[in-house]
């Protein structure tokens, strides 16, 4: 409870700045893993990156703008929930891989070969590549850490939306 109160007492501007920093750091980490460790992202990884980019940009604008915190927090919360859903689905695929692992086409091929209306469902279904765990740290995969990060961003967004309503902080 005290940690939630600490979050609630922090200024909105600082919370948004922390989310922007976290988002851009995670995107940078993903790019480092891709370029240095040669871990190619699957379609679900790409969609999580997009969610982190959107969250980071929203949080940065909110920190600089310093007005309309509730609107920015709502948009940030929705973005992080979408990212959390994608990361949770990928974690599920990694924990319970499909019996027939199909290595489907990559994201560029799908977007260039199919109309967006047909490509998006294929991206969210994932391919056999999305169930492969290429890297772990402390027993958790990249998708697991992504889910934890999106959860943290959601907590920050909710704490901004509920500012002043926390009964433990009064």
Task: Looking at this protein, list some descriptive labels.
two-stranded antiparallel ribbon, 70% helix, Bromodomain-like, mainly alpha, globular, 170 residues
Brief characterization of the structure:
This protein is an all-alpha fold.
Describe this structure in words.
The protein is mostly helical and 170 residues long. The protein is built from seven helices and two strands; from the N terminus they run ααααααββα. It has helices spanning 2-9, 12-35, 43-65, 69-95, 107-113, 116-125, 142-161, and strands at 136-137, 140-141. A two-stranded antiparallel ribbon has the order 1-2. Helix 3 (43-65) packs antiparallel against helix 4 and helix 3 packs parallel to helix 7. The radius of gyration is 18 Å and the shape is globular.
What's the helix and strand layout?
Blueprint: H1 2-9, H2 12-35, H3 43-65, H4 69-95, H5 107-113, H6 116-125, E1 136-137, E2 140-141, H7 142-161
Antiparallel strand pairs: 1-2
Helix pairs in contact: 2-3, 2-7, 3-4, 3-7, 4-7, 5-6
